Amino acid sequence: MSKDLHQGNWKLYLGLAGLAAVTLGLGAGLFYYGTRVETKRFRLEQLRVRTGTIGGATSGKQSLKILHISDLHLSGNDEEKVQFIRKITDEDYDLIVLTGDVFEFLDGLKFGPSLLSRRPRLGAYAVFGNHDYYDYSIFNKTFGRLNRKYRHPARRNNIEPHRISLEAGGFKVLINESVLIAEENLFIVGIDYFGIKENELQKLMDKAPVDALKLALFHVPKYLDSFSKAGFHAAFGGHTHGGQIRVPGLGALITDSDLSRKNASGMVDVGGTKIHVSRGLGADPRSNIRLFCPPAATAIELIHGPGPSAKSANAVHASQLI
Ligand SMILES: [Fe+2]
After folding, report:
1. Which of 16, 81, 234, 263 has the fewest CB atoms within 10 Å of its CB?
2. Which CATH class is domain 41-304?
3. How close is the Cα of 264 to the center of ligand 1, in Å?
4. Could you tell me which residue, 211 or 176, shows the higher pLDDT?
5. Ligand 1 centre from 112 Cα, in Å?
6. How many angstroms is it from 120 CA to the middle of ligand 1?
7. CB 186 within 8 A of CB 146
8. Is there a contact between 126 and 190 (Cβ–Cβ < 8 Å)?
9. Distance, CA 28 to ligand 1 centroid (Å)?
């Protein structure tokens, strides 16, 4: 009896040890895949969207081919990511928008001047994100999640070298600034990571022709209804990385923004403004793991002007091109 019990215990221990080994093996495999494979599975996705009627009537019809890239988190050894960006920017876009977290470390600044293969017809515009302004530590990324006081380092980066690097590559960095491309009746506002006061945004919007197509660039998806209130037809942002880790059947676990987990990335309509949030092409190297959420850039065909109602024409088509 006691010998049987003894043998039974050993079988249980062996079973538990086997289960632990399988779990550890699976965990190690997922970790390897998430950190070494999926983070380099760069994609170019395609999307078509029609703007709504918000932001003033328009006379003509506009169709713009826009490349939206975000969250590059560039550091000195990011040749593969930069090669991908150079490959996709060899296309003939009207506009390229880059929505923050461009550089992670100073050694990544070397890539700014050669990020684009060719300059788009109407220009390339960028805003900065929290990772441009702060050099985070593991402490910020762990304890900072529990106590907002430690969320960001005390010292803010001088981002002038970041701006110089990007502008050497053909980008125009917009820090709570606007640009009017008069010949296309196109008005672009870049909202900095730290946000903009409502009256300052209004001052910028007052410069826009009434019938202009109005676009906003931002980094963190917060206060999303402010875009429609200000009269933007479309807005482009990043920061969420699409959740970065997505659980099959559950989706993103966090968005670190005002977006719901269901809308961690992609196109949403908030009060009539079409808002596109990019999954981004990189991540903080301290947590550089992606699972079921590969890095992506998005080619967006934006149609603006008279046409079917915004609701029925809000057809979004996404497909993997690369
Ligand atoms: Fe980011």
Report:
1. 16
2. alpha beta
3. 13
4. 176
5. 17
6. 24
7. no
8. yes
9. 25
Q: How far, in Å, is the centroid of ligand 1 from the Cα of 270?
A: 22
* Closest by CA position to 118, among listed 159, 89, 87: 89
9 CA distance to ligand 1 middle (Å): 50
Ligand 1 center from residue 132 Cα (angstroms): 9
What's the CA-to-centroid distance between 209 and ligand 1, angstroms? 33
> Which residues on adjacent β-strands are paired with residue 66?
95, 300
For ion ligand 1, residues whose CB falls within 5 Å: 71, 101
Q: How far is the CA of 220 from the centre of ligand 1 (A)?
A: 9
Q: What angle do CA 111, 186, 177 make, to 5 degrees?
A: 55
pLDDT in tens, 66-93: 999 999 999 999 999 999 999 999 999 9
pLDDT band at residue 308 under the 50/70/90 scheme: low
Mean pLDDT for the stretch of residues 94-117: 97
Residue type, 132: D
Strand-pair category, 186-190 with 266-270: unpaired
Taking only the tens place, the pLDDT of each residue in 188-209 is: 999 999 999 999 999 999 999 9
Helix, strand or coil for residue 109?
helix
Q: What are phi and psi of 276, to 5 degrees?
A: -105, 125
Do 222 and 257 meet the contact criterion of CB atoms below 8 Å apart?
Answer: yes
What separation in Å is there between the alpha carbon of 71 and the centre of ligand 1? Answer: 4
Q: What are the structural domain ranges in the chain?
A: 1-40, 41-304
**pLDDT for residue 56:** 60
